[in-house]
Cyanate hydratase (Paracraurococcus ruber), 1600 residues
Amino acid sequence: MTRAQLTEKILDIKRERNWTWKQICAEIGGVSDTLIVGALLGQMKLVKPLAKKAATLFGLSEVEERMLNEVPYRGTAMPPTDPLIYRFYEMVMVNGPAWKALIEEEFGDGIMSAIDFDFHFERMPHEKGDRVKIEMSGKFLPYKYYGAEQGIPAYGYKEE
Amino acid sequence: MTRAQLTEKILDIKRERNWTWKQICAEIGGVSDTLIVGALLGQMKLVKPLAKKAATLFGLSEVEERMLNEVPYRGTAMPPTDPLIYRFYEMVMVNGPAWKALIEEEFGDGIMSAIDFDFHFERMPHEKGDRVKIEMSGKFLPYKYYGAEQGIPAYGYKEE
Amino acid sequence: MTRAQLTEKILDIKRERNWTWKQICAEIGGVSDTLIVGALLGQMKLVKPLAKKAATLFGLSEVEERMLNEVPYRGTAMPPTDPLIYRFYEMVMVNGPAWKALIEEEFGDGIMSAIDFDFHFERMPHEKGDRVKIEMSGKFLPYKYYGAEQGIPAYGYKEE
Amino acid sequence: MTRAQLTEKILDIKRERNWTWKQICAEIGGVSDTLIVGALLGQMKLVKPLAKKAATLFGLSEVEERMLNEVPYRGTAMPPTDPLIYRFYEMVMVNGPAWKALIEEEFGDGIMSAIDFDFHFERMPHEKGDRVKIEMSGKFLPYKYYGAEQGIPAYGYKEE
Amino acid sequence: MTRAQLTEKILDIKRERNWTWKQICAEIGGVSDTLIVGALLGQMKLVKPLAKKAATLFGLSEVEERMLNEVPYRGTAMPPTDPLIYRFYEMVMVNGPAWKALIEEEFGDGIMSAIDFDFHFERMPHEKGDRVKIEMSGKFLPYKYYGAEQGIPAYGYKEE
Amino acid sequence: MTRAQLTEKILDIKRERNWTWKQICAEIGGVSDTLIVGALLGQMKLVKPLAKKAATLFGLSEVEERMLNEVPYRGTAMPPTDPLIYRFYEMVMVNGPAWKALIEEEFGDGIMSAIDFDFHFERMPHEKGDRVKIEMSGKFLPYKYYGAEQGIPAYGYKEE
Amino acid sequence: MTRAQLTEKILDIKRERNWTWKQICAEIGGVSDTLIVGALLGQMKLVKPLAKKAATLFGLSEVEERMLNEVPYRGTAMPPTDPLIYRFYEMVMVNGPAWKALIEEEFGDGIMSAIDFDFHFERMPHEKGDRVKIEMSGKFLPYKYYGAEQGIPAYGYKEE
Amino acid sequence: MTRAQLTEKILDIKRERNWTWKQICAEIGGVSDTLIVGALLGQMKLVKPLAKKAATLFGLSEVEERMLNEVPYRGTAMPPTDPLIYRFYEMVMVNGPAWKALIEEEFGDGIMSAIDFDFHFERMPHEKGDRVKIEMSGKFLPYKYYGAEQGIPAYGYKEE
Amino acid sequence: MTRAQLTEKILDIKRERNWTWKQICAEIGGVSDTLIVGALLGQMKLVKPLAKKAATLFGLSEVEERMLNEVPYRGTAMPPTDPLIYRFYEMVMVNGPAWKALIEEEFGDGIMSAIDFDFHFERMPHEKGDRVKIEMSGKFLPYKYYGAEQGIPAYGYKEE
Amino acid sequence: MTRAQLTEKILDIKRERNWTWKQICAEIGGVSDTLIVGALLGQMKLVKPLAKKAATLFGLSEVEERMLNEVPYRGTAMPPTDPLIYRFYEMVMVNGPAWKALIEEEFGDGIMSAIDFDFHFERMPHEKGDRVKIEMSGKFLPYKYYGAEQGIPAYGYKEE
């Protein structure tokens, strides 16, 4: 069994029972919806208690439950051909250089982590048409290289 | 003169005068920093009063000022090889399918606009290491196709 | 079941019953033919009443009907290798820069939406060989970035 | 001199004199704006009388005038990274299969020409936001293969 | 059933009965061999009377016969890895610019159609080794853009 | 000096003197027009007497004449974005499999040479629009692999 | 049945019977090992008497035997990800320009055939570690273009 | 001035003065050689005191010194065509899946940071040929997603 | 049976029996964990005694045991989309040029072998978060080209 | 100065003085022609005494001489578009799998080195057309992974 086959099975069950992602996430709970849906779509791992809940909900076998608890080989085809996902890709393509300039000026040399980050979205009512509001925060990780004496950090990368 | 040559000139001046983006944005003002830096890096247009301010600040010619007011051919090379920008790309690649599922369930068929959107980031102090906090909102645009009678919307795409 | 398998099944039924797309669109009705055919080929969503009609017409199960009502992962392989589709691609490749220059001069900085747009084609008889006539209109979406005070639009992007 | 250098020169002059494309097209006239702008951007050929007018307008040398009359090596980088042009690309990517199905059913096996076609766009006022209206027509070219006796068409491709 | 599955079935039958393409083309007849073989390999459409003959020859079902009469999604993977096909690709890659220069000088701005064209090859005996002789002709299609008054051709593209 | 710079120089001279390729080929003569134009565009080598003639015609230096006599690094960017060249590419992409099947059946395993081949095109007047007529022939090269005893051909590849 | 399926079947049998390629090549014989192994892996054609021997050895059906006698669609995915094959690819990538310069100086304009060539490798014992010794020879094919009079070679390409 | 131009200048000076990287790193000091060489080649930032030392050593202007202190747009062309760098790429390509399995089993879901890591290499004498010995360590970053209550970590990702 | 199918079977068994890679490697033993896990994932060969142990452990057939002893077609899709593997790829992309400069200065022209190398990783406890510590060594292979007299090394590549 | 600029300068001098590669290699001598030509084309390093000879021959500066002694960033664009180089690429693409099977069976798991190898070609007269004869040998490098105890080779990879 591959992870893609498990995803297809889960989507078939969701369709048959006419469930929404909201209902599914409410049943499994504990972590953000992005994580739960991501795991069911094969991009994230569910920790054991949540994998158990998901297995109970979807009537999965013990082996399928373990697979939900495994770290998958992450990533999807790029560039995205789907318009909704492409718009995010375009934001990065067009605004990436400006974000880089501003974040590095504020934080020094480093990155905003895509591993230790949280993500939240909500509907923002607006008279000219509702908006999707997204909040995320990621830990800033300063670039570090250690000194000539192996293992002894000398200069940190962030300037005073 | 190409837009890339103008960007190189602006960066040379910034370096010579030892300015920060913060100082530059404070001088030009009026719109978000992302937009101002994006325009100076050749990805955005500055509206006329701001292009004038930028030209004064950098000592640009009238023709260069007009170029800042032109819509550039947007977009940068993908996939990004720079680690800071790549992390945003990775977020889209890994989380795109989950975002699609959740946004479509909440809003119906459509996209979050990458054109009518705002973006804001700030430092979020944290004891285990400061975080980059990002807030953005984009107008939701429902997919629309019109009815058999040309120009007469029949069914909207959003289900009741 | 994947969406591609549903498309293959629908095409098999169409072939067996010797139906034309015209007949199928007339049966399902309500929205433009492009939308109906696009949905049956796996690129669009059919709203519930139309998905029901399509399911009745093709004798689909309730689960298959629900799948027609789902938003698919859109997009097809590019560059198109099929000559008919390639000609449209070529129009964009050759004329894109001119369209960009003219539309931006008329409307300001922004895009013509590929989401809120309609499309109609018809045969245009011509003595030297009939022509395909296409009419489409898409909402113009001006580029917007908000001001330094978060959420407060300052300058719109369209110049006076 | 390359065609790209000529385009850069023309854009420099346009910027210096603060002309609009509308003004330029009105001066040169005779053919559609898309063609004139396309030629000045290096994707189209201007016929001799128009190349002469353009040369007079921009103060070009005789050699530069001849270059405007040459057929350029057409085509721009794909996929387009600029959002305005990408939206057209996306229309083809998402709707191509449906267009193919409908056009072939109406016209038989063949293509809509990207060579013998006209293109026109205009502003379509709309209370919820103006729309870009595009009309184009292209000659339908039926696929033809000739019979076993070389040069003797046997079956045409269009079915009765 | 997909077109690729039909092609595989046809090739299996050809192999079992030990037929040559020559024999198959002689049985189906009416159009050039390239078209018949192309259709059986899934790149062309067979008109109805020929699809019927092919179906009788290969013992195909009525549905399979209809599929042979459908326009396939054309095109194969590029660049070609097969040496025989690559040589044709190389001819275009190396000689394309010269062909473009010579054809445009003789015919004006336009293309040689890949849709309305015929193709014929034969063995040309030669003492130093036989040669493949190819003759093809394609309709020349002049580039046309219509005048400012919509639909009224002004200047044709071919210079006097 | 690079070959591309020499090509640009030659094109500048051709434009200044308002020559046609026909005139240039008539002056240089001796081999087919495709070869002469190909060499001047940087894809072919001119043999010494022809390189001398070309140098005299264009007023080139002795070093430039020698460069015309060198074998260039052949090949141009693929896929071709120019419509005229793309049509040839499309012919190979769509018809390649049929050509392969027919040529191999007639000649056995091997290729039609793209090295030892000739090419000729002419205008073919036609009431519905003139056609480009192309004739080419290439030596057939049978695939050969030699026997277990090194250098001793055992089985040829062409079946009796 | 596809050629890939036949290859998989042959490899399964080889594994079950614990045969080496040496044993297989000794049984089939007549041509070089590279050809026999290449054909069993789906990249080459076996002439009829050898296809018969291979079919007897592996217990293949008559149809499978015919498939071994067919010319396959040649070529494998590039760049090669397997280290052994990549090293050959790297040799071409790094040394290609030097080989081109030296071969063209010795032989004139043309290529070393990849069609009419033989290949042999053997173990070359060496005290610092054995070496793989490869000998190959390919027919040199001079570039030829024929003269203005169609079919009459004028200048050959090789200079005196 | 671009960063690539600064790199070229630095390499020219290094060549003229016949310096080794070892000498240069000893002069600048303070951090690991990889960092110093990386910065001089345009892939890393030098902190201010080191940029000053480098500027003194190479006789750079104040503006060039500031550029060395800027974070560059990182990344080089991939796949690497240079054999030395390709071997590292190959290690990742071949061993990546095993490293992923083993690291995730030991550390849980997450990554080894490419930002907070150190790298050291040295010559390891060996009788059969010296070896390159590499030691590196990178901080393990566990994947984190926060709970349904925004900002409140619920389950950590690492299983007990 | 393909190697990918064997990998899928092995992963299914590992999941069913709830084994860790550590347990599996301890059972098979003899070589490093990277090699054992790599072989079970289809990237490496297990020598016969280890393949036998693995077969016993997983209950594989004799044919499957032989497949584990075969050299697979190595390599995985690049660029890696999985974040853990991407970080290694990024290290090569960003630091490759510096590693090349330093290794070549120390060892002369050549490469660090990706074939004769060993790899070891371990957890390195750290108060700010544990680190992944990696040690590897690869044989340095100097670039060698032999002298004009075939087979007689003249200059070695390493300078005195 | 870049290496590409040095190559262009060397080619200009070679052209002006009308030298052949044979003459140049005879002057520089000591190593194989492939190496010398490769170095002058920017793909190889010349050891010091040879770089000195080359500098004297071409009248290069001391800095240019040092550059010839540097290891360049190797590799050229792939796939090769030049027909001569492509034929070598095609040999690898078509025959790679067979070479892999045969070499691994003879030598065990490993590669033939592209670093420690020699290459020699000569003209092989033949009545049907002369042939290019190539001999090369590369050291076989067995795949090695060391045992669980770090640095202690356990099983070699080559089976008895």
Notes: The CA atoms of residues 13 and 59 of chain H lie 9 Å apart. Strands of chain H lie at 110-124, 131-142.
